[in-house]
Amino acid sequence: MTRQYSRADDLIHQFDTVLRTLVPRAAQPSRPSPATDEIQDEALDDEQRRHAAGLMRINHTGEVCAQALYQGQGLTAKLPEVRGQMEEAAQEEVDHLAWCDARLQELEGRTSLLNPLFYAASFSIGAVAGAVGDRISLGFVAATEEQVGRHLDEHMEKLPPGDRRSRAVLRQMAIDEAHHAHQALEAGGARFPAPVKAGMTLMSKVMTKSVYRL
Q1: 111 with 24: CB under 8 angstroms?
Q2: CA 57 → CA 46, 64, 87, 104, 131, distances in Å?
């Protein structure tokens, strides 16, 4: 017999997700990190290590935002299959979150102090998008993932040449994000016009500039 979850059960699950997203080292990946033991960095000096940590902190915060976005959308999505797709994508984003967190530890870095703020903002945007309609919600996913993919490509270029482990993580993340964007469009997501994407790009620049150091 299938258990029917109450509103209290849902709230507890939501709160648990928030904690696992925002508390360092709390997220548990379902897949091993692409930065396997076989991949070893060349020697990084202090400046290179700090730069790599700054870039990985941005990527970690991006995954915090993605987790909040999917959680908000899943809460208000109309169709069960759309909610299911959001949950599946969110699990892969948990992998990304944990991988970035682990890599930050290796680089002697830390997660951003601004993560709670960006989580709250992304959750609100996701909930509004889901409430407007599944087509818009899925379109927002596609546009966001396309933008994240571009950031990942840029960061792979900006990482110190010897930082092979961070690059391995970002490479797999880019593959996953492209898959999420394709899935969202295939499921009927709207293709956002250029002005909307430009506004999203401006918002992402605010995040990247602030999180690199904070």
Answers
A1: yes
A2: 16, 10, 24, 7, 31
Whether residue 28 lies inside any domain: the answer is no
Tell whether 145 is in a known binding site: yes
* Burial bucket for residue 31 (CB in 10 Å: 0-12, 13-18, 19+): middle
93 is in an annotated binding site: yes
List the Cα angle 122/126/127 in 5-degree steps: 120
Residue 88 burial (CB count, 10 A): 12
Per-residue model confidence as pLDDT tens digits over 19-34: 667 777 777 888 899 9
Q: Please tell me the total count of domains within the chain.
A: 1
187 within a domain of the structure (yes/no)? yes
Give pLDDT tens digits for 136-176.
777 777 888 888 888 899 999 999 999 999 999 999 999 98
Check whether 177 is labelled as a binding-site residue: yes
How far apart CA 102 and CA 35 sit, in angstroms, is 10
124 occurs within a structural domain? yes
Determine, yes or no, domain membership for 14: no
CB 60 within 8 A of CB 111: yes
